[in-house]
# Entry
Amino acid sequence: MQEWDQGNPLNNIENNKNNHKTSLLYTNSKIDLEIFKGFTAGVNLFKQRKSEDISEFRASTTQGGRQDMGYARRENRVWDKDLMELTLNYSKTFGKNDLKLLGGYSYENNLYQSVGASNRGFISDDFEFNNLGLGENLFSNDVNSYKSRNKLISFFGRINYSLSGKYILTATIRKDGSSKFGTNHKWGYFPSISGAWRISDESFVQKLSFISDMKLRVGYGVVGNQEGIDPYKSLALYGRGDEYFDNGKWHNTYRYAQNDNPDLRWEQTASFNTGIDFGLYNNRLTGSVDYYVKKRAIYYMYIMFLYHPICTQQCLPMLVI
# Structure
């Protein structure tokens, strides 16, 4: 063993490898078909795949690989996202009235998979990370795999109405269902409504020559959020427990790792805003003034509960005032 070069930076750089390759694939297809005048159907298909290939090797002659007599690891991770969206649009203008209707359905499937293995104690450094089976010191946690999936289904609708381009009203409603949440609260309802008044089109404002454009806006809406929540946080889970020795061999055990939580629900944020857009002196001076109020209605925290003989955790919703 060449102990003299264990701390040699050049030797470590030349004989250690850490490769990380990332690949991305995006595809998107959209079709719009006019069924009859003013009525259009649309289909949107989206596919995204991200993959990571990780390869790590520490030679037995280097500082990081000396103790293990060489160390090698391979890991592959894949994220798949599939989205299908179906929409129906209707548009009609009659006199000074303009009406637009939208209804739709979307289905989103997210899948994550990973597999990895590592080993140590290689009789030769020549194979690097390309033949893990040659290692002679495999630990129980050196081989791993994981898979998780979550789905999101949405129904949505929107109404846009305008009278002479002066009075504008928009209303939307969404019904979203996520597999991440508990059995009691998988679905959330998220409405919004907004209106605008183009004051500059009114006769009493048109007398003011310095005002080129002016519009008042007001809106209120509720949105839902599921980001940051583990796909299986609402479910009772089993995990690996302690090992025990029997008949000359170590054996794994399994235990409860997490309680179920049927009340895990959507985080909701309600917002109100009002504002004014203006243009003065033939729009030489333009700007906007806005006022916002936001209130997050629900958030989550994880609390540990003791259940004999293990300790598990549960995520509880809490109201914000």
